[in-house]
Structure formats: C-alpha cells, structure tokens
Amino acid sequence: MAKLEKTLQGNLEQIAAKIHEGISGMSSSASFEDESILHLPGGGTARHMVYERYSIMGGNRVSLSIMLVDTGNGNVSLSAITSGGSQAMFFKINTIGEESFLNSLEEVLREL
User: Fold this and answer.
1) Residue 85 falls in which region: left (phi positive, over 0), alpha (psi -120 to 50) or beta
2) Which of 50, 58, 53 minimizes the C-alpha distance to 96?
3) Is 23 buried (19+), middle (13-18) or exposed (0-12) by CB count in 10 A?
4) Cβ neighbour number for residue 57 with a 10 Å cutoff
5) How confident is the model at residue 112 (pLDDT cuts 50, 70, 90)?
6) How far is C-alpha 32 from the geometric centre of its chain's CA atoms?
C-alpha cells in the first residue's frame, strides 16, 4: 500500500477531470472502475474515484482509490491509496506496482 495526502487549489470538478484524463492516458492497461459523488451537508462535495491497471513487475493488477473533498475557499483535499501488487499469501513482497501507480498520480498533480 502507498498513500498520498495533500491539499490542492481549484475547483473539485476540474481537478477530478484532469486526474481522470491523466490517469486514463498514462497506461494502456489503466481502467476507470467506478466513482461515487456525495453532496455533503452545508454544500460541500466529496468524490471517490477508483482505477486499476496491470503491473508488469508484480504480474497482477493494482488499484488506485482517490478521494477528493471540496473543503471550501477554493481548497480541495485529496487522499489517494493504492492496493494490490503482491502475490504472497501472508505479507507483501512486491509493492513496486503500487508505488508506480501513485507516482503516476503525482505526475498528473504537478500539471495542475
């Protein structure tokens, strides 16, 4: 598992669109699995997006779960967690695929 948390400046929908475009275009095996959009009391919005891609290093698929929360005043909180990427039964022996997927997201965020 690899995790990234940060605060971004901008509009939640525009940030989500850029992330979707970037992640979908970075790998031919990346797929958008699903999303959930919640309208929070007080007018805020939370958006949860899930992606998967094939990891050559691990020989399996890894997932990337991204949560965006509009915290007001032009701030959007991001929490991203990867999962998968191991073939061991009792502990993880190969997390390179997870870290690589998270690095892909970091590249997209640098362009925002």
Assistant:
1) left
2) 58
3) buried
4) 14
5) confident
6) 10
